[in-house]
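Entry: Carrier domain-containing protein
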Amino acid sequence: MQVIVTNESLADSYQNHKSIQVVQVEQAVHQSHPLELPEVSVDQLAYVIYTSGTTGKPKGVQLTHRNLSHYVSWLINEVTLQECDRTALLSSYAYDLGYTSIFPVLKSRGTLYVPREDVYTDPVRLMRLIDEQELTYIKMTPSLFHMMADSKEHSFDALRLVVLGGEPMIPEDVETFMMQHPCVAVMNHYGPTETTIGTVTKLITPQELDALKERSLIGQPIAHTRALVCNQQQRLVPYGAPGELYISGEGVSRGYLNQPELTAERFLENPYDPQERMYRTGDLVRQHANGDIEFLGRVDDQVKIRGYRIEKQEIEHAARALASIQEVYVKVLHLSGLLPELALYYTAPEHIGTLTFRENLAETLPDYMIPTYFVKVDHIPLTQNGKVDAKSLPLPHEVHMNHAAHVAPETELEQALCDIWSEVLGVEQMGVLDHFFELGGHSLKGMVLISKVQAKLNKHVPLKVLFEKPTIRAMAAYLEETDSSVVTSIQPAEKQDFYPVSSAQKNGCMSCSSCIQK
């Protein structure tokens, strides 16, 4: 240790450590500093974002001021951001999904609201936030959007744009939302961190929803960005043919921090423009004649869970480091709804509880990389060529039904909660002593559960209560003991020829029909 930063009252504690420089905060703040700021080049580093890596070591992506300025300028022009616009950061600032909210609105002299995590992860409080703060645009993952898609009770008078990114969009949610809020535009937003926040976008119209249910259309490249669909020899494929997506243009980052070999592997010279570099995304796509790009999947095993890009090998690497674990395999499942989830299959002398597994993995992995399901198996099945036979692995719920004792509900409230839990967790036979998190529950599913309890039982359950009382019997007892009734919903106003404008509209925002022009 070379430097310690502390306050004046504690500085004397380090007098005997002559080799350590002690910096007192109070003195540092009051010291005079030159007012002239150093000149910054557009090609200087702006920030580094870490993403998941196959070796268990995260990759630091280096983004320049040119990269960031290009994206910010594009978004401001594309959706006509103005001083009257208001948005909120609905994700961690260490995750570039939220940069759609941070930098463009600040450059436009608009307002950025930064709520606590327990606000934007609670669907009730999130929708109240959008209304009360009169937000005009928001950026969120489809997972979070799923919580607010069916929001008939909220008018969202000021809201004019929802940007969805970080994972595949769910067309059914967009359809439900647009039917209830026809004046709010919805934009799909695709882009690896390596190409700066967003590079391919699509403004969704109601007429396209049926097509989007059949094909995952992510849109077309933004300004000064090129999308190349190539074969394994990096030659362009014809329209309609599948290929790997390469991206070139102003958003392509500098590469990976201190990983020159990996940078050389993923950031290549553009054979069609030698003065440009292109990034190899690893995404399998096809481009249609109208320019729209259709997402088909991943070339490798990389996947996006809850909006975060991960690689299964990193999770397997962390799990193998745990005591008593012998074999490990991570599989992507689509069990409840349309959102992907992770299941970790393992062999070990003894069964390891889900909570114990999660606590151990949480020491080395972020929350979004911790699997939803942990399934003990006798062995990891292999195919004839020695690869893991993923299709032969049992579903988590099949293993649970073979081992768990079923305790039926005894009251109407317990039965109602059983029905809700079954719908959220995708488990047909729910017992009142079944553990929410042992059956694949996590914070996002908890938010869905809370939303459905409110809608069907008119009861509000804080998310922390679910963690404290993770069984149906415990939650039923909580609801019976406490007054958790939700305030009566606001009834829609009677139809009139004219309505009073909101505060945001008074400030001069353009109407929804003209604020976004394509």
